[in-house]
Amino acid sequence: MNKQRKADLLLVMVTAFWGVSYFLVDLCLTDLPPLTLNAFRFLVAFFLLAAVFYKKMRPISAATVKYSLLVGVFLMLVYVCCTYGVMYTSISNAGFICALPAVTTPVLNYFFTGQKPGRRLTVCILLCAVGLALLTLNEAFRPALGDVICLGVALFYALDLIFTEKAVARPDVDPLQMGVLELGVVGVIMLVLSVLLEEPRLPSTPLFWGSALFLALFCTGFAFVVQTVQQQYTSANHVGLIFTLEPLFSAVVAYFLADEVLLPRGYVGAAMMMASLVIMEAVPGKKEE
Q1: pLDDT tens digits, one per residue of 76-130
Q2: What do you get for the CA distance between the two ends of the chain, in Å?
Q3: What is the per-residue DSSP string for 40-75?
Q4: Closest C-alpha to 184, from 133, 224, 138, 213
Q5: Is the separation of the CB atoms in 45 and 218 below 8 Å?
Q6: pTM for this predicted structure
Q7: Where is mean pLDDT largest: 14-18, 80-84, 142-146, 284-288?
Q8: What is the dihedral of CA 207, 88, 191, 73, to 10 degrees?
Q9: Which of 103, 115, 234, 248 is most exposed by smallest CB count within 10 Å?
Q10: Distance of alpha carbon 253 from alpha carbon 47, whole angstroms
């Protein structure tokens, strides 16, 4: 098996873990408060990665620390929105809406860099917006509270990606160190917030322990390491297309494990959102798009 095919398969596995994570988060929230769950998830992942990559974590430059803090704050906001969003909407809706950074990132990048979206991207954004409306609006044409909260994921993760790209382009920033440190930043902030706003506690049963550890070890620690390491062996187009599978995995898991069924127009909306992502990532176009 060549390196690119191996990398693509590993990234598909990562995407599957992220798709499953929506169900596991929904399950764990019946036992743990949201901020406590995120603190547990990210601190376990941080300490695991810090131990595995101990020799590569020294020395750490000031620029690496600076960008780890900045990106870590955005990542913290991503997971706050994602976790609270799952509490107030369906697993399927959360999975599709949280895939929107593939569209929002180029839009925000235009405001930061002045790079104007091309025709194809504009069409994809409009297609995605219509699909989102069909998926999330109820009979009164109002979105659920959780749908609105999940839109924060699209905003903050786009900012996370933009500043991460800026950071790793600097010669004085170590991408692996930043990837590990940002998890620690998220975990510490979540822990402080949980102490101030919740009553922190550990999982109460083996089921919740297993679910929380799976989130920490595979959906966070393993996923971040594989994404960082394997992207050097495959193309950006491959990675973008693979990651559009995340909402499909979340919808399949929700259907079989949580008995979630969308309305007919919801399936149409989800298909339109998926089509917009695939068109943007898979259809050849001009480089500037």
Answers
A1: 999 999 999 989 888 878 877 887 776 777 778 777 777 676 777 778 778 877 8
A2: 32
A3: HHHHHHHHHHHHHTGGGS-S--HHHHHHHHHHHHHH
A4: 224
A5: no
A6: 0.81
A7: 80-84
A8: 130
A9: 115
A10: 29
